[in-house]
Amino acid sequence: MESIVVTGIGAISSLGNSVDEIWNNLLLKKSGIQQISRFDTSDFKTKIAAEIRDFNPYETIKKKDIHKMDRISWYAISAVDEAIKQSHLDISKISSKRIGLFWSSGNGGIESTEQGAKLAEKPEKYPVFQQLKILSDAPVGWIAQYFQIKGINMSITAACSSSILALQTAQVYINAGLCDFAIVGGSEAPITPSVIAGFNSMGALSRNNQSPENSAKAFSKFRDGFVIGEGAAALVIGQEKETKKQKMTAIARLSGCFSSNDAHHFVHPNENGTYTNIKSCLKNAELEYTDIDVIFPHATSTQLGDKAEYLALKNTFMERLNDIYIVCIKNSLGHLLGASGAIAAVVALKSINEQIVLPNKIEIDEIEFKDLHLSYKSKKTEISHVLCNTSGFGGHQAACVFSKISN
Asked: Which of 349, 290, 310, 270 is nearest to 9 (CA)?
C-alpha cells in the first residue's frame, strides 16, 4: 500500500471557527453547549445543543451563493478552505483530476428540508434553489466548484460513521492509484425542530437543560444521552511521495482504516461489532494493540452505547487499556453525527502534532468503567499512535489510526 500522510486540517464547531481556536478552547475545558437559540423550544424536552453562533459565511462564500446553500455547505467550505491553506495544496500545479473529494453528512440539508416543507404549501412560489440545498451531496458539489477540483467526487452516508468511512474510501482510491491527493471530511447542521424531536422520541438526547455545559456525560453514571452539535472538519491527505514532490509538510501518517456493519440496526446490546472492527483497523494499520497511546472513542453518553463501546475497548486492549489515554470531546463540542469522526480525527491530529493529551470535562464512573484512563488536566506526553472510533445507527462501525511521523 502507498504511504498516506495528512498535510492539512480545518474545522468549525461551537467552540470556534478554526482548528486552533477549537483546540485552545478544548485545552481550557470550555463547552460549546448552550440553550438552543435557533427555534422556540418551549414544547421540547431537550432545549440544549452545541450551536455555532459567531460565524460569518461571507468570509469564504460569495454573496450571490449564500442563499443557494444550506448551512452544511457553508461549514464545509469554511473547513476545507482552512485545510487547503494549511496543507499548501497548490491546485494550479496538480492535475485537478488527480485530487479526490470524499465528503459526508448524516442528515444532509435538514434545515432546508424543513423550510422546504413549509414553503411547499405555496408550490407556485417554491424557491428555485431550495431542492438543491437539501441534497446530501450538495456540500461536495460546492467544494468542487469553489476550489476547482475535478477528480472523483462522492458523498458518503453511514450515519455517525460517515466521515471515517469517507476517509477509508479515500485511502482505497489513493492506494488504487486513482488519485494522488484527497480532501476528506464531513459537515452537519442538524439543530432543527424535527431532529431534536426525533431523537427525543427515541430517548437519545440529554435533558440536562439547567446545566448545558455539564451535559454529554460520557462514561459517567449520570449519563442521560447525547447533545446535538454542528460544524465541519476537513483533512487533506495524499501519497507521501507526491506530497514531497509538492514540498508539502506532513502532519501525521494515516496508518489504517476499517469499516464494517454489525447487522443490528440500532445500538447492538453487545460489543462484538465494535470489537471486531477495531481489531481489523489495527490489522490494516499493521499495528498491535500495545502500540496505541490515545483513543478518541465514540462516547455518545447513552447508557447502552457507552457500555458496549467500553466492553469492546476492554476486549481489544485488555491489560493495556488502563495505560491508554481516553479523550472524550462530545461533552464540549456536542455530537456532530455524520461529521463526528472527522472532527475527532482533526483533534487527534492536533494532539499528535502538539504531543499533548487533552483534558476531559466529565468524571467517569470508576466502578462501571474502572479500566478507562482519563486525564482531567492537559498532559504533555509521547504520542505515537491515536485511534478514533465511531459507530452509527444502521449497524455502522468505522475506525482509523493516525501515527506520528518519525524523524
From this structure: 349
